[in-house]
Amino acid sequence: MKQNGATPALLGPDAHGWRVSVGGGAEQSVATLGDAIAALPANANVELALPCQSVLIERHKLPSTDNAELADMLQLQLEKTLPYPLEDVSHGFEVLSRGENESTVLTFAASRAQLDTLCAPLREKGRIPSRITLFALRVAASCPDTGTILALWPEQGQTVCAIICDGKLAWAQPIAETAPDAVLSELPGLLLSAEMQGVPADFSEIRIAEEAGNLEEGLARHFEKPVRRLGLLPAAKSDLDLLPPAWQSELRSRERGDSFKQNLLVAGVVWLVLIALAFGYLAWMKHRVQLVQREHDSMKPRFAGIEKQMTRWDSLAPVLDPKRYPTEVLHQLTKAWEQDAKLQFTSFNSGLREFVMKGEGTTDARFALITRLKKNKDLDGFELQFPPEQPLKDDRFSFTITGKPR
Amino acid sequence: MNLIANMNKREKFLLMVTCAVFGVLINFYLIKFFLSSRADLTRQLAVNQAKIDTFKKRETERDLWSRRDAWINQRLTVLGDSDEASKTLRESVLEIAKKNTVTLEAPQPGTPVNAPGHISLGVKFEAKGTWDAMFNFLYDLQNPERFVAIEACEIKVNPSDKTQLRATLMIARWYAPKQ
Description:
The structure holds two protein chains of two kinds. By secondary structure, chain A is of the alpha+beta class. Chain A is 40% helix and 28% strand.
């Protein structure tokens, strides 16, 4: 599915097929809408300008000047005049003129079924137009804002005849011919019917498209008015949009989907970056560990001698280090012991790798003794352990204190 | 993409839930792997750094350990006649006991024992005395210059007279190992 993005693109009818214009650039002619899709960039915001034959255009005079009221009135009017149910039609209107109590409006209606058929190639490729207008409105926008102009241009093998009043499309009708004689023969009758609908028919000039240059001579002779060429076609001034609501919601849904996908993609990229950073950090840490390990390995031989000396000293510690002497240990233990009369010494066993002292006392006295022993710096060379006390009678307990050289 | 486009809403929802669960599991294992690896590497770094710091500290103590080693070489004598050495040790212990009014009984001379870094020649005694006498006796026994170790010591209060202590002592003189 492709995304409708920021680049504006126009799909409109030309003399034989379709014209494609991307970003206001040069127009390209293609035979079918399917071919037109290929010429559209992936991120194009497509406006489809319908040919005149696909839209039913009617002129109404209604007794209101309020747009909301006009919309309601037109709804009723269209229900009466259209050959399809109103639900199957995309419609819109443009106010041509407002009087004191009435307005003249031009309604545009396109059958949904016809739009479905016409736009099938676009929708199949996921390229729903963001707006559907009428090509004739673009032609009207290219005409001056004052005066009444008769405009003729070819559309897909037909000739469209339109009357533009003060820069607004006032009437349009396709003629099923492009040959000058056939067009000129049908034109008077069409203009007469337009005049009967109240469309001004007093043209100040006539404008034709480049492709309809063969009509110039006949038109000049028939109307005795100047015939000019239509210039570049600007965007339509009208707000008309015949995009069916279902398509609009489909478009919004696709846009949401695209937005979700884009967000998902961004989240995925962020996730990958975070993963890459995390693994990069681990690689950096491993490198640091290896560096430090190498530094340690390179230092190790220089300290082999001192390590040996230290090991030797440690093995002789029981005779060299006074803090390891049983006398010193016993002295430190009894010094802490004698501060509490509730404690009673039982026995002291000592070896080269451990000492065990046993005694009796109350729980509080034992706790206080343990606290004092833990604070004693002279016993720092031992890892003291205090196994659970064993109950005796009269709230007294027997307890053990053990110590192993660190 | 066509496969997803052809799915209905329920299938898409199930696919999303599956992907979400899969994503959560992958992230869980990745985070777990990252945290455990980081903790392991940090620990290794700290351990190695600590070893290097220890080496640097030892560099400043090199002279001290050389002097200590030389001191041990100078003072730790080699065991000659073991009977003579045992007799000398026994006599010196008895002399210290006599000085501190501790009674020694049942001396049992031991035989030389090879231990890592030294040879131990011990004598076992049963000792009796007051608390102060026993403490002073034990204090006088050991001195870094004498290389005497109390390899085993069991001191108990005399149940019939709590001012008296009874001790079983294994007193040993340490000698330099034979080359």
